[in-house]
Amino acid sequence: MEARAGRLKVFLGMAAGVGKTVRMLQEGHAAADSGRDVVVALLETHRREDTARAAEGLSILPRRIVDYRGTALQEMDLPAILARAPELCLIDELAHTNAPGLEHAKRWEDVRDVLRAGIDVLTTVNVQHLESLNDRVTELSGVVVRETIPDAVVGSADEIVLIDLTPEALLERLRAGKVYPAERVDAALNNFFKVENLAALREFSLRQVAEEVEAQRVGHAAAALPRREEHEQGDRAPQAVGERLMAAVEPLPSCQRLVRRAWRSAQRLGAELDVVWVQPPGRPPTDEEEARLGALRTLCSVLGAHLLVESGDDVAVAIAEAARRRGTTYILLGASRPPRGLARMREPLPLQLIRKLPGVDVRIVADRALRKETPS
Amino acid sequence: MTVLLIVVAAVVLGLAAGWWLPPNGRLGKRSATATAPTVRRILLPFTGTSISSRSLQAALRLCKAENATLMPAYLARVPRTLPLDAAVPRQASEAMPLLEAIEQQAHAQDVPVDTRIERGRTYRHALSRLLDGEKVDRVIVSANGDTDHGLSEEDLVWLLREAPAEVLILRPGPADDRVVSAAAVAGHF
Fold first, then answer.
1. Given 3-state DSSP classes, what are the helix, strand and coil percentages for chain A, each rounded to the nearest 5?
2. Predicted local confidence at residue B32, as pLDDT
3. Residue B3: its pLDDT value, please?
4. Under a CB-based contact definition with an 8 Å cutoff, are residues A88 and A122 in contact?
């Protein structure tokens, strides 16, 4: 039987100095007090007294020394953690890049190994390290964040704790020398630590956690639903707090426009976008479909949208199931082709979706090819 | 009686055929399309927030003349700090309205469109990845002389040498300041 994977808890903050590490250490103490075997595998105090004090009394694994081009670097000792096999491991700074030559290039990959060994992990990360936010953070603050982690790493966490602080309070801490040493305070205030930057980063953090909370809530609610008749499930489908869009597409060039429109709408609403294609079961995609699907996959990846390939005979049922599972609030469809044969007897797809998904908006995006006026 | 039966059978057959066939006689059109040779594709790579109107019109004229599909492709640069397959929403938000504007102009001229966004570490890298992954018959680029934005002279030389397709480089012209940008999108987007 496969061993249980460890649980991952992430302390997410908008910037350095909000108190993520201290909070992680407090939880480590609480776990140790309740009798769990707790080890601090990696702690970055950044010479902060509060942080060093919070770690007192916890077992701290020594770091290993790695020689890199004549410089001795101190890195987390992954083999020592796995050999020690504690119940709970505290690992600071999830986005850290390891020195070359270690087991993995990134610390989040080390954490993955620790979790696979059945060890629970508490870790910390700032929101600007999330890949999907990276270029927006750069645009906003002018600061290029070089250490990034895939969103899925944070998304896969069992718990995410937002360590929140108002920008003003954080700046107060910074000026009081509680974040950086006195000689670095002015530079920090003149660069990254500006109220407008911090306010935007705070919003990113709040949104990120809200989305994760919602995804978990919808997931739990969907799992708890009893297997009933479809229309009953529709009535009882978990209602999402924020907007979540779904574009139902076919792998056709014309559908790229639908995805673009859906993405623009998602951007305006600050919502996530799923793109779904219902593949006929038992028939592998043709070469042409595969190529078009590849183009669609690339487009979704560029946009940060999620491409779902569902299999089903009944397109409406498959889309409705995917929408319930994802907590969709808004479905966008392209204009349907004229039905043929017995398909004329069938209820049109938008009407089926409206019936199957009460409370979900359904929007039909027009085909520009049918619009004949000359653009101005 | 027999005549009546024949008439009834003919009416029933006629109704069934009318029911089965799609409206507007599309079956005939589809058959014609199915036997047509492989569709030619003309790649129109671009960067930034606008595209030279002259390049676009040239590409559209060629597509129309050759019954080809226009493939406008936005080239996005991914910083080395990010994986090559990372989402680039800021650049995508530049590309989206521009692709929409191009698609609208193409549809106004009955030219089919198949848009792309390709990522790379540099514009040349993005173009190289695009050419590796797509079969195109012709590439149209504009030599606008602006080496800070878009493809450089070296990139154009590379394109001529490496592209597995005909390359059409439009020399700089007096009308190059006329561009198609997001402002050209008609209606709500």
1. 45, 20, 35
2. 39
3. 74
4. yes
Distances (CA, A) of A94 to A11, A26, A107, A118, A125: 10, 18, 6, 18, 6
Reduced to 3 states, what is the DSSP secondary structure of residue A248? strand
| Average pLDDT for B136-154 | 77
Other beta carbons less than 10 A from residue A200's beta carbon: 18
Of A25-39, A287-301, B62-76, the least confident: A287-301
A302 contacts B101? CB cut-off 8 A: no
- The Cα A28–Cα B52 span in angstroms is 60
Confirm whether pTM is higher than 0.80: no
B96·A295 Cβ contact <8 A: no
| Tokens, residue A7 | 């649980």
Interface of A with B in 206-245 (CB under 8 A): none
pLDDT tens-digit series, residues B51-105: 888 888 889 999 999 899 999 999 999 887 788 888 888 888 888 888 988 988 8
Residue indicated by tokens 């999108």: B185
Span A235-264, average pLDDT: 78
Residue A198 is predicted with a pLDDT of: 81
Alpha helices in chain A (DSSP H): 20-33, 49-55, 78-84, 107-116, 131-141, 151-155, 167-175, 182-190, 195-224, 230-236, 253-269, 287-303, 315-326, 349-356
* DSSP symbols for A165-231: --HHHHHHHHHTTSSS-HHHHHHHHHTT--HHHHHHHHHHHHHHHHHHHHHHHHHHHHHHS----HH
Residue of B90, B96, B189 with shortest CB distance to A139? B90
CA distance A371 to chain B (A): 8
3-class DSSP string for chain B = CHHHHHHHHHHHHHHHHHHHCCHHHHHHHHHHHHHCCCCCEEEEEECCCEEEHHHHHHHHHHHHHHCCEEEEEEEEECCCCCCCCCCCHHHHHHHHHHHHHHHHHHHHCCCCECCEEEEECCHHHHHHHHHHHCCCCEEEEECCCCCCCCCCHHHHHHHHHHCCCEEEEECCCHHHHCEEEHHHCCCCC
pLDDT band for A237, please (50, 70, 90 cuts): very low
Chain A: closest CA distance from residue B85 (Å): 7
